[in-house]
Amino acid sequence: MGSRASTLLRDEEIEEIKKETGFSHSQITRLYSRFTSLDKGENGTLREDQVNFRGFMRTLAHFRPIEDNEKSKDQNGPEPLNSRSNKLHFAFRLYDLDKDDKISRDELLQVLRMMVGVNISDEQLGSIADRTIQEADQDGDSAISFTEFVKVLEKVDVEQKMSIRFLH
Amino acid sequence: MKSDVFFLYLLPPIVLDAGYFMPTRLFFENFGTIFWYAVVGTLWNSVGIGLSLFGICQIEIFGLTDITLLQSLLFGSLISAVDPVAVLAVFENIHVNEQLYILVFGESLLNDAITVVLYNLFKTFCQMHTIETIDIFAGIAKFFVVGIGGVLIGIFLGFVAAFTTRFTHKIRVIEPLFVFLYSYLSYITAEMFHLSGIMAITACAMTMNKYVEENVSQKSYTTIKYFMKMLSSVSETLIFIFMGVSTVGKNHEWNWAFVSFTLLFCLIWRALGVFVLTQIINMFRTIPLTFKDQFIIAYGGLRGAICFSLVFLLPVAVIPRKKLFITATIVVIFFTVFIQGITIRPLVEFLDVKRSNKKQPAVSEEIYNRFFDHVKTGIEDVCGHWGHNFWKDKFKKFDNKFLRRLLIRENQPKSSIVSLYKKLEIKHAIEMAESGMISTVPSSASLNDYEENIVRPLSPDEMNNMREILTKNLYQIRHRTMSYNRHSLAADSSEKQAKEILIRRRHSLRESVKKTHSLNRNRPAITKTTRFLSLPKDTKLPEKLRIRNKKSFRVGDDSSDSELEAPTTVLNLKPRARNILQDQRHQQPQQQFRMELRNEVNGDHEGRGDHREAAYETHASRGYRQPLLSRPRFGTLSEENVTEDVRSARPTPPPRLVRWASDAERHNNKSENQTY
Question: Which residue(s) pair with A102 in the sheet?
Answer without folding.
Answer: A145
